[in-house]
Amino acid sequence: MNPKTFKIKSFGCQMNVYDGERMAELLGAQGMSAAAGTDDADLVVFNTCHIREKAAEKAYSDVGRLRREDGSKPLIALAGCVAQAEGAEAKRRSSMIDIVVGPQAYHRLPEMVAEAVRGARPVDTDMPAIAKFDAFPERRRANPSAFLTVQEGCDKFCTYCVVPYTRGAEISRPWNDIVAEAHALVAAGAREIVLLGQNVNAWTHDGRDFADLIRALATIDGLARIRYTTSHPADMTDALIAAHGEVEKLMPYLHLPVQSGSNRVLKAMNRSHSVETYLATIEKMRAARPDIAVSGDFIVGFPGETEADFDATLQIVDAVRYASAYSFKYSARPGTPAASMEDQIPRTVMDDRLQRLQARITENQMSFNRSKIGVDTQVLIERKGRHEGQMIGRSPWLQSVHVETAAQPGEIIDVTLVAAGPNSMTGAARQKAAA
Ligand code: 5AD
Ligand code: SF4
Predict the structure, then answer these.
(1) What are the pocket residues of ligand 1 if the criterion is a CB atom closer than 6 Å to any ligand atom?
(2) Which of 74, 177, 265, 362 qualifies as a cystine partner to 260, CB 3.0-4.6 A?
(3) Half-sphere exposure of 168 toward its Cβ, with a 13 Å CA cutoff?
(4) Best substitution site from 9, 54, 81, 297 to test ligand 2's pocket, by max atoms within 8 Å of Cβ?
């Protein structure tokens, strides 16, 4: 029987969230409708992440749980980076999986569903350039803050990372396609666009670079805010830094992963930046945009990381004064160079370092948030809060702000930030001056 309803569950990065939205639109265009949960879906798509070990294991155990009490199960598609990495092997690991579809093959999802209905178990992990974007229908719905993937893949080959293998080589979507999609998103209600790419600041097309793209998108009426993620320090050009000082709609927030504060470890990671060049970039950025909130990613326990290396990581957290940061225990990914390096770090050591790093990050996050108490700013309302009358939105610095207001999602309101927690702020709505 042809499936009538679907549920897509996305894990991992924002690019997966974006892909999940586009797959939903694609299935919607086939006449299928979204189910509330996996229990009442005829088709369940697991849009998986392969970046760390547990994520893949979780995907398989989630698939296992889809067996229903009466013994039946929905059609199951394994999508995303686990699908790309595992390929046909996924069907062997779980007999419940009907479809295996890699991140560059989503345009084929409807026909693969039809094949699965006929009893086949199709696998597609090809990587044709950009084909999937052309197949997606035009965007008709958008969140107040909407994702737009402009670039995919990675040529950097950090020694710990699977992304170059799962998402393929760096590739940029064409200028016109991006501009058209941005217009469609704004027409559909987006006030903010978050440009996405594994190396988004490496975007380039027909001699134009990422800073040119941002400046062009900033001219779209009705679009109030532009953000982007994730950036590689090596592609942080002067032009992009200058845009932060000049383009008002470009929000004062920069996610710039450093991974480690030790040059020895950075070299072993093949990061192509040093502590010094990274700090110089941050300094230039602060000169262009003094209030920029800097965020980052860290890996603790990379093979060979000594206590002195780790100490250097703690030091860079304080030197940068991160407004937020994500930190992870190193996870050996099969096929990556680091997985076969000597001196893998014991789990207990990683646990201890992660805890200390996170404490240091939280301190920095807290002091950044405290520094904003009393500041008059604007909040883009995104959704309802837990309490009656409370709404949650984002400050320009990407802080989550709780505020009592009648304003609805998509509205940008004037707010005074009045209290700070480690992960969010409280805001007080300011009355607009009478006209
Ligand atoms: N182990 C742990 N963390 C990793 N990341 C990427 N690969 C690994 C790995 N093998 C982290 C990096 C990256 C973020 C998206 O995930 O910090 O910036
Ligand atoms: Fe996970 Fe990276 Fe794939 Fe995103 S690109 S889903 S973070 S492995």
Answers:
(1) 51-52, 160-161, 257, 259, 297, 299, 328, 330-331, 333
(2) 265
(3) 16
(4) 81
12 lines ligand 2 (CB under 6 A): yes
Q: How far apart are CA 368 and CA 308, in angstroms?
A: 27
d(CA 273, CA 94): 41
Tokens of 2: 């042809």
Helices 238-246 + 275-288 axis angle, to 10 = 30
Domains, the chain, with CATH or none: 5-124 (3.40.50.12160), 131-369 (3.80.30.20), 376-429 (2.40.50.140)
Residue 167 and residue 83: Cα distance in Å, rounded?
11
- Angle 56-60-65 (CA atoms, 0-180°, nearest 5)? 140
| pLDDT tens-digit map of 248-304 | 999 999 999 999 999 999 999 999 999 999 999 999 999 999 999 999 999 999 999
Q: What are the backbone dihedrals phi and psi of residue 246, each rounded to the nearest 5 degrees, phi first? A: -115, -30
Q: Which residue's C-alpha comes closest to atom 14 of ligand 1?
A: 297
Q: In angstroms, what is the span from residue 141 Cα to ligand 1's centroid?
A: 32
* For ligand 1, atom 16: residue with the closest CA: 51
Burial 210-230 (b: 16+ CB within 10 A, else e): bbbbbbebbebeebbbbbbbb
pLDDT tier for residue 130 given thresholds of 50, 70 and 90: low
Exposed / middle / buried, residue 415 (Cβ in 10 Å: 0-12, 13-18, 19+) = buried
Decide: pTM greater than 0.85.
Answer: yes
C-beta 20 within 6 A of ligand 2: no
